[in-house]
Design goal:
The complex is a heterodimer of chains A (about 270) and B (about 250).
Chain A: H1 4-10, H2 32-50, H3 52-61, H4 63-92, H5 96-110, H6 114-124, H7 133-158, H8 162-170, H9 175-205, H10 217-228, H11 231-260
Chain B: H1 2-21, E1 24-29, E2 38-39, E3 45-46, H2 48-60, E4 63-68, H3 74-79, E5 85-86, H4 94-99, E6 100-102, E7 107-109, E8 111-116, E9 131-135, H5 139-147, E10 152-156, H6 159-168, E11 173-177, H7 178-187, E12 195-200, E13 205-207, E14 210-212, H8 216-232, H9 234-243
Parallel strand pairs in B: 1-4, 1-5, 9-10, 9-11
Antiparallel strand pairs in B: 2-3, 5-14, 6-14, 7-13, 8-11, 8-12
Helix pairs in contact in B: 2-8, 2-9
Classes of the chains: A mainly alpha (about 270), B alpha/beta (about 250).
Chain lengths: ~270, ~250
């Protein structure tokens, strides 16, 4: 256990493509996150106060879309995280069959754009099963992000020092107990930021579901533009709205991360 | 030195010559609105409006190139000057007139409600509680929204996707311009016979070509062309070619 600090955290560099999670140890008041948030909130308020027509009208047109976006994101997170965990465990499994199955799933899904997956599940598979727009959105996004998260879980788990497993095994834990009680709790700390990242990326990608006539933020905006032809104004509001939501979420992930790292706080 | 200057001028003249020969305009059409606008086998815009524009260009001696542009955002492009004309079965409405200039009407339609074969309604009110699909930001959607009949509107990126969902049973009805509805009912192989037009609205809508506000010169040319085509009977020939069986 002597290499706890270096082994579990410091040696691992995780690279993901999601939003950047603010560093919980960042103490300065002015940083990229606060500038972005303050800027976005100020811009939103200013536009709405100075030009209530059309900006306030646009803002009041979007809330039901925000609800749908959140609903899809939450449902997809609930499905994608367990799916990712199972896939991650499958990827490090010594059982050849399970390993191959999980690896193939990851390879296939990662090679198909999310937009194509959504079209495929909604329009192509509807020949066999018919599901509503929201259900297919959740299924498509969960499957897609389950694969990405599987890789995150695999990386996080295999980054735990082998000594941990050996120690647990020599203390008489079986393999399941070792994974559940020793490896996973430690891995969680490294896994959480990239998983949080993926969840935020997921929220942004829900904007693709508007092609299935699901009335999310993006679809509401497009429908508004369709009647008013205010392209600049509407999409400015949509961009600010998405920005504020993702910034708040990334802060939430950052706070969770610092809570989990309570014991090795510096 | 003189030789260089002459050569440069000559080169300039040659390069500029084709530009001045005929005025060239670019028109945008959303080619998923058969038979008014569609893509032929060579992925080139075809249909009633592109043919109409080609004939019009010939009649007034200008050149018009039709490009396929997605409906969602097609008005943004004409406002920012990416193309000069929108020729995409755009109904002339008061809302649109505030933002853009329209030519004289060149075609008249009404809204048609498509239902699966065998089902019927007698007015828009019968759509209460039903899921009604249509292409995003088209007049069909506006008509249902304005009627406030309590239908749930589903706005698709193109009308074909809405028809696909109607056939699958995920929505109850589709509303679109009547030539398009007729095309899906009669002509398109995989939907013919599975749909029926159960209801048509009374109010006539007129298609017009859309240009950026203030482009009087272009409006004049297009209006002149529309008039010429209507007088010469060319319009009827094009209508027969694309809508003949439908009419």
């Amino acid at each position: 256990m002597e290499d706890k600090k270096e082994g579990s955290k410091a040696n691992i560099v995780m690279v993901t493509d999601g939003a950047s999670i603010p560093d919980p140890r960042e103490w300065r008041l002015i940083n990229a996150w606060s500038i972005a948030l303050a800027g976005a909130v100020c811009a939103l308020c200013m536009l709405c106060v100075l030009w209530p027509e059309p900006y306030l009208r646009i803002l009041l047109y979007l809330p039901d879309g925000v609800l749908i976006t959140f609903k899809i994101t939450l449902l997809a997170i609930c499905c994608a995280v367990p799916l990712g965990l199972i896939t991650g465990l499958g990827r490090i499994s010594r059982n050849r069959c399970i390993n191959l199955l999980a690896s193939t799933y990851v390879e296939v899904i990662r090679g198909i754009p999310l937009l194509v997956q959504i079209f495929y599940i909604y329009y192509a598979l509807s020949r066999f099963v018919q599901v509503s727009g929201i259900t297919s959105a959740v299924v498509a996004i969960s499957f897609c992000y389950g694969a990405y998260m599987g890789e995150v879980f695999r990386a996080g788990i295999s980054a735990i020092n082998k000594g941990q497993t050996e120690a647990a095994r020599s203390l008489g834990f079986n393999r399941y107990q070792t994974m559940r009680l020793v490896v996973l709790p430690q891995a969680m700390r490294t896994i959480l930021p990239p998983v949080g990242n993926e969840c935020i990326a997921m929220l942004k990608d829900t904007s693709l579901v508007s092609i299935m006539a699901v009335p999310d933020i993006m679809q509401r905006a497009r429908s508004f533009v369709g009647t008013t032809y205010l392209y600049f104004e509407t999409y400015t509001m949509v961009a600010l709205l998405y920005l504020i939501i993702t910034l708040l979420l990334s802060k939430a992930v950052s706070i969770m991360e610092s809570r989990l790292n309570y014991y090795d706080a510096k | 030195m003189l030789r260089h200057c002459t050569l440069a001028l000559l080169a300039l003249a040659i390069m500029c010559a084709p530009v001045h020969a005929t005025e060239k305009y670019i028109a945008a059409a959303d080619c998923y609105w058969p038979p008014m606008e569609l893509l032929d086998e060579n992925k080139q815009p075809a249909g009633y409006s592109p043919d109409f524009l080609k004939a019009l260009a010939k009649a007034v001696g200008i050149e018009i190139e039709v490009r396929n542009v997605a409906w969602d955002g097609i008005f943004g492009g004409v406002a920012t000057g990416q193309y000069d004309i929108v020729s995409s079965s755009v109904t002339i409405t008061e809302e649109r007139k505030k933002q853009f200039d329209f030519t004289d009407p060149y075609y008249e339609v009404v809204q048609a409600v498509l239902l699966p074969a065998g089902q019927h309604i007698s007015s828009l009110k019968d759509l209460k509680g039903k899921k009604v699909g249509g292409q995003i930001a088209t007049t069909g959607i506006f008509v249902v929204r304005k009627a406030e009949v309590g239908a749930e509107l589903k706005e698709y990126d193109d009308v074909g996707l809405a028809i696909e969902d109607l056939l699958k049973g995920r929505i109850d009805a589709v509303i679109c311009d009547d030539p398009v509805a007729l095309y899906y009912v009669n002509k398109k192989a995989d939907t013919a016979g599975k749909l029926n037009i159960s209801f048509k609205t009374q109010e006539k809508e007129s298609y017009g070509f859309v240009v950026k506000k203030g482009r009087k010169d272009l409006i004049e040319k297009l209006n002149k062309g529309i008039k010429l085509l209507q007088e010469s009977g060319e319009e009827r020939r094009i209508a027969e070619k694309w809508l003949g069986q439908a009419n």
